UniProtKB/TrEMBL annotation:
Pfam families hit by this protein: Abhydrolase_6
Region (Disordered): 1-30
Keywords: Hydrolase
Keyword rRNA-binding attributed: no
Superkingdom of origin organism: Eukaryota
Taxonomic source organism: Hibiscus syriacus (Rose of Sharon)
Lineage: Eukaryota, Viridiplantae, Streptophyta, Embryophyta, Tracheophyta
Ranges of Basic residues composition bias in the record: 19-28
Protein name: Methylesterase 12
Residues of the AB hydrolase-1 domain: 94-331
Length: 344
């Protein structure tokens, strides 16, 4: 009996040791995989920086097509119809604008897919974002923040027009452009974005999640005081775990890793600025809104309120998408963008 008890005790000890070793190996494997993903994301970010040398100013680089399926497999009848329809479109240029903290890098999947169907996408780094080296603490107005877009529109041919797509707070830049360059924009597409009305601030859209602007300016732990603690805040940046919960609750791990090594602080002035929008300029523009239905940064209820109070020409919805459909639901996003581009 005693021997039996001793044997069982030794066996239990051995089993516990084996489990502990397996657990240790599992944890090391998880850490190794996480480290690999971060290295891979960093490599992508560095690669994007090298490719950017092909472009002028802060205009985005193209990350290159990640899929060659359409070039190797036979096209379906539906794909042929889409391509034929897109060939007849007069304005094929699509300008992609990122949201707060992001850069042109976030559109790498979108660029590849739109190029495959013959469209001409260009992603821009807004001032102080992506690889634009401007200190975000010096960017105080929406006009300054939107300078790369303003320069792009000013350099278009006299009769040239583009489709603008703005994500999140980048929607404010869309609205600014519609007001100041209405003749240059064929369509404006707000992607779970700040489609504010006249007299509103982009920040007001996020008040449900972040509280009032006044309270945020006084109490938020995410504020950056670039000119000293005794001076007004100049920017903000969320803690990484909070960003993951707000922005990336449905996004692939690799894209989240890319975002974690690429996101930068956001200038505070532009999103606290009240927009002046007129009926004959901004109001005459063709606006479309794409809702993300699993968005935790800009809830579906808030997005619904935006389109109800400031009705666009069309509203589209993406099920199962977080705040970043270009990561979480790229195929759905691309289909909707192509559909909107084809609207006469």
């Amino acid at each position: 009996m005693g021997n039996s008890l001793i044997c069982r005790t030794k066996k239990d000890t051995k089993d516990n040791g084996s489990r502990s070793k397996r657990k240790g190996r599992s944890q090391r494997k998880m850490l190794a995989e996480e480290e690999f993903l971060h290295k891979q994301a960093l490599s992508m970010a560095l690669h994007q920086h090298q490719l950017s040398q092909r472009f002028d100013g802060s205009m985005s680089r193209r990350i290159g097509s990640t899929s060659s399926r359409r070039h190797t497999d036979p096209l379906t009848n539906n794909e042929k119809k889409v391509l034929e329809s897109l060939e007849k479109i007069k304005f094929k240029k699509i300008v992609l604008l990122h949201g707060e903290g992001f850069g042109a890098w976030c559109w790498y999947k979108t660029i590849a897919h739109l190029e495959e169907v013959g469209l001409q996408p260009t992603a821009l780094d807004l001032t102080g974002s992506g690889i634009d080296l401007t200190d975000t603490n010096t960017v105080t107005t929406l006009a300054e923040y939107s300078q790369p877009l303003i320069k792009y529109l000013e350099n278009l041919p006299k009769d040239g027009k583009v489709v603008l797509v703005g994500h999140s707070s980048g929607g404010a830049c869309l609205s600014y452009a519609l007001e100041h360059f209405p003749e240059k924009i064929s369509k404006a597409i707000y992607l779970c974005a700040t489609m504010v009305s006249n007299g509103q601030r982009p920040f007001d859209v996020f008040a449900e999640e972040l509280g009032s602007a006044e309270r945020f300016m006084q109490e938020s732990q995410f504020l950056i005081h670039g000119n000293g603690k005794d001076k007004p805040p100049t920017g903000f940046m969320f803690e990484k775990q909070l960003m993951k919960g707000l922005y990336f609750n449905q996004s692939p791990t690799k894209d989240v890793a890319l975002a974690m090594v690429s996101m930068r602080s956001t200038p505070l002035g532009p999103i606290m600025e009240k927009l002046s929008l007129t009926p004959d300029k901004y109001g005459a523009g063709r606006r479309f809104y794409i809702q993300a239905l699993d968005d935790r940064a800009l809830s579906p209820d808030v997005q619904e309120k935006l389109v109800r109070e400031n009705p666009p020409e069309g509203v589209f919805k993406i099920k199962g998408s977080d705040h970043c459909p270009f990561f979480s639901k790229p195929q759905s996003l691309h289909k909707i963008l192509i559909e909107i581009v084809q609207i006469p």
